[in-house]
Fold each of these.
Amino acid sequence: MKNSFDDGRRPTEQQSAHSSSVQPFLKWPGGKRWLVPELLKIIEEYEYVTYREPFLGGGALFFALRPRQSVLSDINSDLINTYRQVKSRAAALLEQVRPLPIDQMTTTIDFGNVARRRNSREQFGFFI
């Protein structure tokens, strides 16, 4: 699947399946952040080997679950690229976005058009 990636990460022994030291870094329209406590109650009743998320968005449930193995998907290829870049280049992301002011200007710029003109390594900073 083009717009997905297999996380396949293995937590250390100190990490529990539901430790939440990593928080979602995007707020997403239609996100499940508000619903996570109820979803966790339901999901805890089931055993699974691989967590599969077809509508990743901001990833609230994924970050809350901290699954041992996961396949994360979304139809938005820019979103999937952003997760790939954050996973492999988090320090570069921080370096790229720290100088941006948080004001009306940065929240109204159409970064989507700017991002499409850049390669995938540069694009993720504009998407966030």
Amino acid sequence: MGVSEMQLKTFKMSTNLNLLSKGLIRLGIVILLFIIAPITITMGFKAIDKFTDSPDFYFAYLFLVLGFLILFYAIYFAFKTFNLLSKAIFNNK
């Protein structure tokens, strides 16, 4: 059951290294965003519990909204990054 060299070339998948490097950089950014978002959300909830004055209270909600925006953007950016990585690895055009 020998496999010829022509058959091996047919099944050989080439990886686009430029897209792969861009995808890995974006993956690092996604990981950083997934670390920053829960920290910001936690800071917002703790600030709501601690501050009751009007100016500080608005900053607490600002942290909370900012944390959720970062979280939703991180999820969106993760889908875009995994799409880019799949294009790089499987050479989809």
Amino acid sequence: MTEWDTIARCQQRLRETTPLPADQHLMLRVVKIQEEAGEVADAFLGMIGGTPRKGVCKTKQDLQAEVCDVIATAMVALYELAGPDAERIFAAHIDGWGTPEGAR
């Protein structure tokens, strides 16, 4: 079983349990990416003590977990958008990063 198999199962479960109409599922997945990105920022600030009121309250492991949540959430959104082609689309996109023209 691959990560994409897990993402497909997760996307299917979310489709079955989300109370919104099917045509709004993609919107929800895209907005969820931003929510998770905010949690990355919060974890980073907590790790470096960037919020004086809270001080250092997060660990590197907390930050790593939040980054993983962003990645997985984005994968679910891509699967919602592209279905089983998501893995191929993502691989082709990432492969382009290895070229001088594709460097980000």
Amino acid sequence: MDSAKSDRLLKEFPQRFKVFQFHQDTFEIPANCIRLAKSDRYPNQAFRYEDFIWAIQFHLEMDENVINDCAIALEQGLKDSGIDDLTIEQTIEEGKKLSPLVQPLADRFMQEFLEI
């Protein structure tokens, strides 16, 4: 998004990137906040309030190891949400593919965050 291009934490992210998203929740961005990221399914994936509060809905911290460690809980989440077109095995495979791509984004995000 154009608003992310000048954002302190997301300015170095590519215009489009794929990260782990494991939720069916959505929300409205509070008044006076700037939307920084969206997805096809959920329009509010990240936002900022002024220059000191950021919120992200997607999961930069989820790598292949975390997904494997959380497999039982993730599988239950699929069942509880009524998602029947995605299996835990597919989720783990997706994690394997995304991990090397997401890790540099997560590192960059946290480095920028720690400098605030």
